[in-house]
């Protein structure tokens, strides 16, 4: 029967979609206790009036910033985020005092602060969070009047941040599992999942989960290395374990692609390796015996397991496999910093967008007849963060979440007296934050908004009648972002997805070159880069699906192409396994033809041209790769909208 009911557009369903994350009870308890604790102490000491209350408000702001900063990951990474959020947030409190009043001086100051924040946000995730806190507390300080001097405000803010940082440290000491070891152990669990899924419709998802686990593992034990000598040695050994797992990962991917069922003992061995690495235990059981017969992928899986088993089970072998950290010259670091900031075109473009929006918001703060106009600045700063996902999605979700949060805050201000009972709803809202931020931006705003409203109302009493005005301020800020930070920049609607597509094609070309022309070490490095690029491509696709047409429809049409690029990378991995099992190397000329086709596909994506329809001819282990590349080019021709036929060069 035909369903004639009304349905929301797919992009709108994606926009309002909220995942059902598990409740992180330890974080819930920490947030609920730590965030309102400074305010509770201030109320106990000085009551609901005077300087003590102001001190409690600023200390609670600091504890909020420090408590929200860390996310899952190594302790060193969490503390870097806490430090960046606290120090730059405190700097924002100082700068915000210069934005009081009117005239061009506050406008110029906001433009400079916005440009600096945009540049430093390109350095790292910790600096990106710190840049956001710089803007947030600059905005709050510009409109928050308290009897405390500026130095006292910053001092109490940093004291609250130190309290929040101490709670993070204490919680980390009670964690049952080392997150670094858990991230490496997860790789072997995902290998076991993929081997179990061979021949089923779960194989694709299992392979993507394995790629994601590898990315996270390398990010934690290599890209975020500790300065502690003992800890650095342990992380170096974990990095060596990850590197030793490369043949096993390749064999598992080849088995899934070829639907070659594996021995159940291999799945159990992968689980045993995961347990040994995660819990720092000896590997249980015996090392699986070598396999000389059977399909090449099955033999490769057993070989990979035996190799990792040897590294994990033997401390001396593990020490030899350790990846030592290479110290980089300061000039190279300075060059990298320049490349990430002023030398990066995307970073420069974001400087212009953020500065424009924040400057307009500052002008609106001065000219529009709105109460507490600093909320406009606050909204623009939070919404216009490129590494937090789609600007359109955040603007809409922020507006919707704030609407509900304002209603909750209004009810609380109406029925709650100005007394210590305000701590109870603040604790409940704070406790919901770690759960809500795993859902979506709107859900997070639902609980963050009443918390901030209650906190700021203690510093500058306004009552429930001002809550509606805060909603208006939020909608003005979202409107500024949508108009001046989104609609005026149509190239940003599709640029991240297009760049990710081209990056995936270039990484695939490099993988093919390494697989058939270079050493196993270079091949594995190129394979990791290829699958990492595909993971980034999927992330960008998901962000674009929540935007209105034609952006979402165009993004959805890319999905078959993305899947085909994944299949092509899997085919190259399968060919590598086959060659290691004795299959002859393909003809170099045929490899060159396949690589040229992949490079031309990248050029087609860059220049918005239709690929030609010439079929690629290849033999031996290269034949499946050529077929997958042909399929990718056909999908670009047939299913991708908005393409125009370009003119090929004379040599085509």
Automatic annotation (TrEMBL):
The keyword Membrane applies. GO terms for cellular component: plasma membrane. The keyword Ion transport does not apply. It is a multi-pass membrane protein. InterPro entries: Memb_transporter_dom. It is found in: Cell membrane. The chain crosses the membrane at residues 82-101, 107-136, 148-170, 400-421, 441-459, 471-489. Keywords: Cell membrane, Membrane, Transmembrane, Transmembrane helix. Residues 363-484 form the Integral membrane bound transporter domain. PANTHER family: MULTIDRUG RESISTANCE PROTEIN MDTO (PTHR30509:SF9), P-HYDROXYBENZOIC ACID EFFLUX PUMP SUBUNIT-RELATED (PTHR30509). Belongs to the YccS/YhfK family. This is Putative membrane protein YccC.
